[in-house]
Amino acid sequence: MLRPSSLGAIHPMTTLSRSRTQALPFFQSRLLQPSTTPLALPSRTMASQPKKPDWSATQYLKFGNERTRPAHDLISQVRAHVQTSTPRIYDLGCGPGNSTSALLAAFPGAQATGMDSSPDMLSKASAALPDAHFVHGDLATFETPAADVLFSNAVFQWLRSPQRIPTLVRFLAGLKSGAVLAVQVPDNYAAPSHALMRDVASAPGAAWSAFFADCTVGEVGDARRPDLDPIEAPRTFYEALMPYARSVDIWRTEYQHVLEGAGAIVEWVKGTGLQPYLQRIGDEGAKKAFLEEYERRLAEAYPVLKDGKVLLGYPRLFVLAVRK
Length: 324
What we know:
Blueprint: H1 57-60, H2 64-78, E1 88-92, H3 98-106, E2 111-116, H4 119-128, E3 133-136, E4 149-153, H5 161-173, E5 180-186, H6 192-201, H7 234-241, E6 245-259, H8 262-270, H9 275-280, H10 284-301, E7 310-323
Parallel strand pairs: 1-2, 1-4, 2-3, 4-5
Antiparallel strand pairs: 5-7, 6-7
């Protein structure tokens, strides 16, 4: 089991809103039109691509408790819908096992399977939870046997928009009646932490500029770009899932993580959203210059608190659907 002491302290969280959606018109399958070309990322994207550099579970777990807090919040809403003491649970994009650990703590009798595409993540997960089952898988093609819960803590954001909701619909449609699809995704496309990635990568004449010359950073229609697609509006999720669900619950929470400074924000995103940018920069000197400029701009965007720390606002969207 992953222990709290190995993951760091949980920092304060502010909930901005949590509300149930109202009934909306049926989802139109042609709503999503951009290219379906997968995003070129490390293997944790779980898209079928040639082998790419792996993720670092160690980097990811520098902020393990903060990353796991949304999993606990999502699990708290799943509990009421699980009617068996031995549920079959799949943790999609399980990472180093922190979310799988939280699921097993909430459902001690569960048969849990964690799935990820990163060998390093799976290695850490297996070592931390030897009694759980972990498999290498591709999110875009993964087929689950009969499951009571399909759970995902921060992985569907890695799919391009034309793939994301259709994949969720496929998973929900394949579940038995009463089973639960529970998903959380970061919803921070417009947050300074992520907007500044795009701004810095787009800077003309910089040491790193040549490494982004073959794409248009921030242009949603360009599938080659390193930035992730914005998360769809809540009503889009609702209208896509509701035809297959007896209920769909959607809410958005913005966590306020207390970090040591702009450098700590860099370390946070180096474990996730900054990876596609860094993987593009093939020169270490250019990569160092990119990180220094990114940190400089973060320091301007995140004012220092009286105790010298900063607040990283981190919005996340939660979707919980129960199969009809």
